[in-house]
Amino acid sequence: MGKYSVPEEIRKLRPAGTQVKRQGDRFYVYETSSTKKKVTNEDGTIVWKTFTKSGKCIGSITSQDGFISNQGMLSQDEVTVLDYGDYAFALKSSSTLQHLKAVFNPNDANQIYALALIMFINGFTYMCDVYRLFSESYLSLYFPHVHTGETALQTLYENLGRKREKVDAFNQRLIDHSSHRLAFDGHVIACTSEKNDLSEFGYKASKLNSAQMNWMTAYDVDTKKPVASEMFCGSDPDKTAIQRFFERYYIQDTLFIVDRGFNTKDNKELMSQNGNAYIVPMVQGRNDYNDVYSKIDFDKTDNFIYDKDGYSSLIYYQDFREINGKRYIAYVDTTRQAAERKTYKENMDAGKKGFTPEGLIENEKNFGLFILETSATVKSQYEIFCDYKSRWSLETFFDYVDNTLDFNGLYQQDSCRTQGLSFIMQISGMIYHELKEITDSKNLSLKATLKTLHGLKLSKQKNDWKVQNVVKAKRTLADVLGVNLQPSIVSPA
Questions:
Q1: 452-484 residue pLDDT tens
Q2: pLDDT digits (tens, 9 = 90+) for 316-328
Q3: What is the domain extent for residue 149?
Q4: Is the dihedral of CA 54, 59, 61, 66 positive or negative?
Q5: Are 96 and 22 found together in one domain?
Q6: Number of domains the chain contains
Q7: 374 near 278, Cβ under 8 Å?
Q8: Which of 154, 128, 136 is nearest to 87 (CA)?
């Protein structure tokens, strides 16, 4: 008997109008439907032939129990306990859904938002797991018409990646309503799929031990939200990828705060158009850097105190406004200077190769030093320094993407679906910063808040849903955050 054949004694036990298929040592029963079609034979005669098509699996057959229907199985029963608290907090406190509905069809907006919220609550989630999480959460009641099956999500990713009009309009709307202080940077996502044409070996190949894709993000440093994102080929440098953003979006009267990877002539020209300006570190070793470096002679009366976000330091500065028609500002951060000097001396005392007393003297000028180039001619030296330091919030966002959202590796084979997925990650990032702003304002940890609220469940009692596990700690936190503990939800008849 062949390994796919079905024994006669098993076939005799199948219900009428069904067929049996073998999978390993088990036998499953499928509905069948028959249709008749006209078929032309080779001799030109036309005959009617019957074609049988398999439908859904309705049960299984064993020699011991005979036909076992799927009906009545525990796995087929209705879910009567739903995750509630963390989802209710997000739905109440996030305005991202309204932003989506301003551009997308409401059905699409709901599907995008529900998926992004699942990612936010549970971390990066593969398509095959989304439906279960959706059906076990308050989202299934809040969005009863949203489809989250694997096929529906594949279609969503595909549409977001191939039909860019609304995605671009959404991002353009975010840019237009931003603080107009934007940081740009690329973030590496490992990708082991050989079929995804965005997946190539890049500058982190040795560290990742795999190919990569580059996720370029534009980030509002004031609102701390991503306003646009896109996947690029793993071998594309950041300085090339940013040019696509200027082709795709119209950006005006905006300050760009970027790292030295964007310090190229073409990029600086792009970032100077339409009333825009930029701040970018100089690249050590280049002629323009050496020219400015040779002229540094700090007058320590030119200083200010920087004291923000728990970091305080005395800063010396020297402003060069007329070198090659550009403005450069050299800064020495004295707190960072002391820390770098201490590290150098510890390495020297430990006998580490390359760290010598002579080197300590030679590097004294470099400790705590960084030189910025900017086209913002009217801003003060203090404002330029604060603007540049604000870029660090983008690194905090990427830390969330890597370590909390856990979006650091993909097996996605289709590049268009990958672009769609990157948009979902952007929306998750928007939700994250909205909720973090709320918890920070109340001196709460977002991570601990979500963990506590996760214990609040909805339990179905007859036709009503009631919130369960309302112990004092959860009730108090829900009251502080305005989470409704008596939602009037009645399941449809």
A1: 999 999 888 777 888 888 889 999 999 999 998
A2: 999 998 766 689 9
A3: 78-259+411-493
A4: negative
A5: no
A6: 3
A7: yes
A8: 136
